[in-house]
Predict the 3D structure of the following.
Amino acid sequence: MRLQLFVNELNDIKDAKLQIFAVKLLTNAPDYFFTVPASSSGKNHPYFARENNGLVKHTRCVVFFAECNAESFNFDSYTKDMLIIAAIAHDIKKQGNNSSKQTVWEHPELAHDYILEMQNKYPDLISVENATIIANAILSHMGKWSHHPEFTIGKKPYPMPVTLFDYALQSADYIASRKELTGFAFRSTDVPA
């Protein structure tokens, strides 16, 4: 069932090894990733991401906007595949390694480490260099908000996006998180979440 929730996004990954890597990421993701809302406080994200399975819906929305960015920025097919993986995994540890029932500040770092751990476990699927590109984009996906005084009291800031790849992920997440987003055009072939 986990993989069915992302069947279209996985099918969008053209490189066979990267597709398998994405499958491994989802197969080994925490159980809560597939059931919880995207916003534990209910204050952030559009209405459809604040309900059960909202994190899946938010993640799929991020993938959609990341693919738009990849096309707009003229990324080659392999780089686009890597961006899809970054979008799938950016919040994969949102409530920590186990469900803490709320978003944990260090979720970008946990997801960053998860990507590198999975690369180490499956080195034939993705190079260290490419896994690091994905992991670093995830680490910076909160952008300027990880430096905003309202959110960061007593917390370490995460790096700002640096590369176009980083910005492609960060902007996709930002747009998909906007409360003003009134709907998401899921494809007719989508499995209901």
The radius of gyration is 15 Å.
